[in-house]
Design a protein that fits this description.
Layout (H helix, E strand, L loop, with lengths): L4 E4 L4 H5 L8 E7 L10 E2 L6 E2 L19 E2 L2 E4 L5 E2 L8 E3 L1 E3 L11 E2 L2 E3 L8 E2 L8 E9 L13 E8 L9 E8 L4 E12 L4 E9 L2 E2 L8 E2 L2 E2 L22 E6 L9 E10 L5 E9 L3 E3 L8 E3 L4 E10 L5 E9 L8 E7 L12 H11 L12
Antiparallel strand pairs: 1-26, 2-6, 2-13, 3-4, 5-9, 6-7, 8-11, 9-10, 11-12, 13-14, 14-15, 15-16, 16-17, 16-18, 19-20, 21-22, 22-26, 23-25, 23-27, 24-26, 27-28
Length: 387
């Protein structure tokens, strides 16, 4: 297990990545323009304390492709810094969308929930889920990452999705539990993470600890994922069906970007690079919690390090690791501020390696033929790399 290294500098993301400004990674916050349920049609009357269910709004989208609409379509906008918005379809034809799923027990029974989707160009109509609302009184935040190398105001390709769901229990405020889905859309892997707010005895302050994290292929049924020895689950029916006013407009004041090394050799030190950008108007002191896949030894000193970042400034950090496993893995970091406010915090996950390969002898004939054709350059490459 090796040491960590860190240094601070008031640099922009583009300079850190060694990219021109137009090619730097962009984080865009998705704003939901309707709540779930769409118009709060099921709620408890504050005077009579009776559950009121006005007329159910009609479903607008067919998710199971049975020619009947079965969910609501929640319009979303990707906010652009300085005003305006980004398209929700990238230059490769990939699309993001936000259906709202009715409670299986019946619309308005308390567990209607968001189901963010990524639709790969040419893929199925229903798309792949990249997160879900997993708490009865959850508060959700969705962030998309991409680049716009040519500056045409269209994402070249969505590369990462981060869906964060916070638990408020039956009655808000925040209980301290967070479940986040960090999806590497290029490698088609999802890293569900569970974190919990804790009290730091030495300072009487508030901190956060990652309690569990796993990695699964994109397309996995998310409700079956196990975190802390229990399924991550679908939302449970809430005792209080108060009208929902959430519209996903709560953004984060922190950008946390974690990058894996180009290569990782089992048994040798591998360094992950991180970047924290303070988008707030005040100075913050950040700390970092980490979790890695089985076989990844992480330097524990990062847990006690502090990073003071001025408004609009940034700092880099490095984490040395040793991977004793095979195939693929991940490292996740959760950077949190001294305020304890989750809006001042940010997750990121770096996926590395490759899934186990199929032995050449077991590949079907046509697969070998395609590989042979590719080797001789007979497969034309698209101008844009959209795979």
């Amino acid at each position: 297990m090796s040491s960590i290294r860190r240094f601070a500098a008031p640099m922009a993301c583009a300079l850190f990545l060694g990219l021109p400004a137009s090619a730097q990674a962009i984080e865009a916050r998705a704003c939901f323009t309707r709540s779930c349920p769409p118009n709060g049609y099921a709620y408890k009357d504050p005077v009579t304390c009776m559950t009121v269910k006005p007329m159910q709004p009609p479903f607008e989208v067919d998710l199971d492709c049975d020619m009947m609409n079965d969910a609501w379509d929640i319009p979303i906008t990707l906010k652009k810094a300085g005003g305006g918005s980004w398209p929700t379809t990238d230059a490769c034809g990939n699309q993001i969308c936000l259906p709202a799923i009715p409670d299986p027990a019946g619309p308005g029974c308390g567990a209607d929930h968001y189901s963010p989707r990524f639709k790969k160009a040419g893929g199925g109509k229903e798309g792949s889920r990249v997160g879900q609302c997993v708490f009865p009184c959850g508060r959700n935040k969705w962030t998309l990452t991409f680049v716009d190398a040519n500056g045409d105001c269209v994402p070249d390709k969505f590369t990462k999705s981060t869906w964060e769901c916070r638990d408020g229990g039956v009655n808000w405020p925040f209980s301290g539990k967070i479940k986040t889905f960090v999806t590497d859309l290029t490698k088609r892997r999802i890293v569900p993470v569970e974190a919990c707010r804790t009290v730091i005895p030495t300072t009487s302050g508030v901190g956060y600890t990652i309690t569990d994290a796993v990695m699964v292929p994109l397309g996995t049924e998310l409700s079956t994922i196990i975190l802390n020895n229990e399924p991550i689950g679908e939302p449970q029916i809430a005792e209080d069906t108060t009208e929902s006013t959430e519209q996903g407009d709560g953004g984060s004041t922190l950008c946390n970007t974690l990058t894996p090394p180009a290569t990782i050799v089992p048994g040798q030190t591998a360094t992950f690079s991180g970047l924290l950008v303070n988008k707030d108007t005040v100075t913050h002191t950040y700390q970092i919690s980490t979790a890695g896949s089985p076989g990844l030894q992480v330097a524990t000193a990062i847990e006690t390090a502090t990073f003071v970042v001025a408004p609009g400034g940034s700092t880099t950090y490095e984490i040395d690791t040793v991977f004793d496993g095979v195939g693929e893995g991940f490292l996740v970091t959760y950077a949190w501020a001294e305020t304890g406010d989750p809006d001042d915090n940010a997750f990121d996950a770096a996926v590395f390696g490759n899934p186990p390969t199929v032995p050449a002898s077991s590949r079907p004939f046509w697969a070998g033929l395609i590989l042979a054709l590719g080797a001789f350059g007979l497969i034309a490459l698209r101008r844009r790399v959209c795979a």
